[in-house]
Every structure is written in C-alpha cells, then in structure tokens.
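Quick one: structure for this chain?
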Amino acid sequence: MPILSLAEPGKSIECFFIVAILWIFSLSLHEFGHAWVAYRGGDHTVADKGYLTMNPFRYLHPVQSLLLPMIFVVLGGIGLPGGAVYINRALLRSRTWDTAVSLAGPAMDLILILLLGFAFKFGLIPPDRENLFTISLAFLLRLLISALLLNMLPVPPLDGFQAIAPWLPRAPREQLLGLSNVGMFIVLLSLWFIPSVSSAFWGTVASLSSVFDVEPAWVRAGYGAFRFWGP
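Got it. Here's what it folds into:
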C-alpha cells in the first residue's frame, strides 16, 4: 500500500518546496559524508569547523551551494553538486583515506538514490502521475542521479577526480587542479551544446531511473510542477 499521497499537482509551489528542501538535505548529507570520513582519517579540524552535523548552514555557500545549483535545476533539471567542506588533506593518514574522503559524499548520494528508488520500486510511493509527492520525488530522484553521475566524472574539481588525484604524480595533479575553475563549466557546456554528450548523459539518467520503475512522464510532470512561476 502506498504511504505517500497528495493529489492535484499542476503548477505547485508545494512541489518546489518539497524538492528544494530535500535537495538541500541531500547536499548536506553529501558534505557530512566527506567530513565524517575525513575525521576518521585524521583531519580532526572538521570537528572544530562544525562539519560533523547535519545543520545545512554549516555547509551552504551562498553561490556554490544555493545560487548555482538552483539555477541549473531551474534551467535544465540538472543536479549540480554543491556544498563546501574544507578538508585539510595533509592531515589524512594515507592516500587511501584521501580517496575515501572524496568518495564518501557520492556514497551518501547513492544511499539516498537507493532508498528513494526502492520506495518507488516497492510501491511505497504511488505510481500515479496525478500525485504531487510522486512527481516531486520522481524529479528529485532525477536530480540525485544526475548529480551522482556528474560528480563521479574524473574532471577537477569533482569528486571523481579528487578520488584519483592522490595517486597521480604531483606535477600533473597540480596542473589539473589548476583547471578546477573551468572544469565543471566545460562539462555543463558539453551537456548543453554537444547533442551526443547530452543524449548519452540523460539516456543514462533515464535508464537508471527506469530500474526503479520511475516513469519519464512522472519526472517531466515533477519538473513542470516545480517551475510554479511559469510555463
């Protein structure tokens, strides 16, 4: 029996708040994962900085964590990784811990994807395009999957690159890290302006969503309801 129900989606400020609040929670959980593993790995400064908490205000950067992610959600339904946890990697005990810190955030995203996905799969969320929770959570699942895929790309400054960076020779690692300011924008521009890249990426997102029996129509309806202010 479904455990969530709320009818008549349409254009909905309720959908906007459901998605936005849960999206901010997911960003906080992602950053908490980084911080907790860093603490276990030797960087105890994360505790002094207040990162060992689920308080989103500890992680939110006004531009990186709120403005940019929300702009990309609004413009294209893209789950842009955000947040800001500053890890002193020099304090980590080994390169293995360094890699584990980078992968901990995406691991939190994966846990959320599985929890939400299996809620769809096992009917805890009703398979109903007219249900506000259904379409809101279907759109949120798309954001989480797209954020995970983006974040695991081996492009600086994303976690996929940070995970392999400790194992690279110092000179090329520092040269690549110097491209951090442009790496993410190159990826996003590729998604927008190179049809083959966009098709492959969103096809993968749709395929992963379909594993949990989430219909594309639910996602489209959720995105439409999320944009309550316009067409």
